[in-house]
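sorry for the late reply, my laptop died twice this morning and i had to redo everyting from scratch. anyway the thing you sent over, i finally got around to it. pasting the sequence first so we're on the same page, its 122 residues, then the predicted structure underneath. double check i copied it right bc i was rushing
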Amino acid sequence: SMTVPHLFNVAAGPEEGEVSFNVNRDFWSSSVLDRANAAQAVTVPQRTIPAMIANLPFTPNVLIMDIEGGETRIPLEHWTLFDKVIVEFHARLVGQDAIDRITNHLTANGFVEAGEDRRSMA
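ok and here's the structure:
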């Protein structure tokens, strides 16, 4: 049987609730982080990754994430709910130390880096 895609119109974050989302003219740069060129801020629902998983009829095993610096707001234990993680980190926005905390946690939990592309622009 085929699994039907599920869509949650929410921001992933550290707790259930609401968060201010900064909408950028270039939509791909929009973020929960306060970025310089945000056109406006809107309040959106915020859900944790475990809460979203609990509302699925299956257990996902891959996390794909590109959330413009918001990745550092995801609790470390939420990353390891998956077998594989594909993520774009934004060190220019959040600093390398914040990224290292995530990658060190993944490594400590048995994840092995399969590839890296440093040519991407932040």
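The chain has a mean pLDDT of 91.
thats about all i looked at so far, will dig more tmrw
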